[in-house]
Write a structure and sequence with these properties.
about 160 residues, mainly alpha, 7 helices, 2 domains, single chain
Length: about 160
């Protein structure tokens, strides 16, 4: 019964949001952020279903990218950065509700690393002094290694 009520409320809200968007009263980023908020509300109301959290994080990342890209032409690297941060936030929220899952760290770290790669390929390294740019990739690798070690220490050990 709760699922039928939840999905009924979701469909009604989606219908209202789409109607307002079709009438031209809502910009694209606001639409995406409202959809993300709806998915996150569904996560809270449905007993913490991870799929709704992941969907909310991904749509929210897309909405944030569209909002920021409207004012600052940052390039594609920013999309992957927001998406990676979204997955890392999924990890954080899942840990806060008591779930010991670590799968979101893998796409999160890969997407943030890919974002850094695209940033450097698009000329982001020009902003850095060339004397320090050669130390960037080793620093990124060390940072990722420290992040993985930190996560492994935070995860409880299983005893057989």
């Amino acid at each position: 019964m709760v699922n039928a009520r939840l999905w009924g409320a979701v469909l009604i809200c989606a219908g209202f949001i789409l109607t307002i968007a079709q009438m031209g009263y809502m910009s694209g980023e606001v639409f995406l952020l409202l959809v993300a908020a709806g998915l996150l509300a569904g996560y809270l109301l449905s007993g913490y279903r991870t799929g709704l959290l992941v969907g909310g994080a991904c749509v929210g990342a897309l909405g944030m990218f569209v909002a920021v890209d409207r004012y600052v032409a940052a390039g594609g690297w920013l999309f992957f950065l927001f998406l990676g941060i979204g997955f890392l936030l999924v990890l954080l929220v899942e840990r806060l509700v008591g779930r010991q899952t670590d799968w979101p760290v893998y796409p999160g770290v890969v997407l943030v690393g890919f974002s850094a790669f695209i940033f450097l390929q698009e000329g982001g390294a020009v902003a850095l002094s060339f004397a320090y740019a050669r130390f960037l990739w080793p620093a990124v690798l060390v940072g990722l290694g420290l992040l993985l070690l930190l996560i492994s220490f935070l995860r409880p050990t299983r005893r057989s």
